[in-house]
Amino acid sequence: xxxxxxxGSKPEKLMIRRALIGIAALGLGGVLTVAMLDRNxxxxxxxxxxxxxxxxxxxxxxxxxxxxPGYLEKAGNVPEDRWLIGGSLGFNGPWGTTYPTNxxxxxxxxxxxxxxxxxxxxxxxxxxxxxxxxxxTEADLRAIHRYVLSLPADDTPVPDYxxxxxxxKTPHIVFVPQAPKS
Length: 182
Ligand code: HEC
Fold this sequence. Notes:
Layout: H1 10-40, H2 47-60, H3 63-67, E1 90-93, E2 96-98, H4 103-108, H5 112-121, H6 130-134, H7 138-150, E3 172-174
Parallel strand pairs: 1-3
Antiparallel strand pairs: 1-2
Helix pairs in contact: 2-7, 5-7
Heme C binds near residues 65, 99 and 125.
Keywords: Heme, Iron, Membrane, Metal-binding, Transmembrane, Transmembrane helix
Protein name: Cytochrome c domain-containing protein
Organism: Mesorhizobium mediterraneum
């Protein structure tokens, strides 16, 4: 078709040149994408994507429900700079009284690999759903770490765990199934 330059009309040659440039650009784009996937090994193209994915997981994975003060009570209407700072509203049951950890503080004490290791082996007292954390993929766990570290540092203290034989000194939710009164 392009056998002789003199045969091709001007617009036709222009179109062919544009098509060739387009194909070259696609090829280069593909190489770049593969290189990026390779670099972070997550299957997500950029660090910003994985932070956004971590934010999504924290939101729909229920972490805020307990680890963000007031989140459940205010139907999620809590400013993001208060997310995951832990809470002093205890959960009281046969295990004693537990307090949701300040994850903004905790995750800053460990790098991504340590966090993956912790999440893979975690077992806590109730009502923390530690088994859900264990079930997450490594990419999801890394995304959560990246998201939490993208929030400003926060070291709001959380009350210590109280064993069953001692009454809690803070407000707490009694987390014990009740039989219906007949
Ligand atoms: C139903 C409430 C609840 C939900 C939902 C919840 N947590 Fe927890 N979490 C807790 C409580 C309470 C503790 C403290 C447990 C203890 O003292 O043994 C805790 C502890 C933890 C710990 C252990 C901290 C340490 O010191 O080792 C991690 C990590 C954690 N939560 C992460 C998460 C993440 C990530 C999510 C979301 C996927 C989540 N939690 C969802 C209540 C919850």
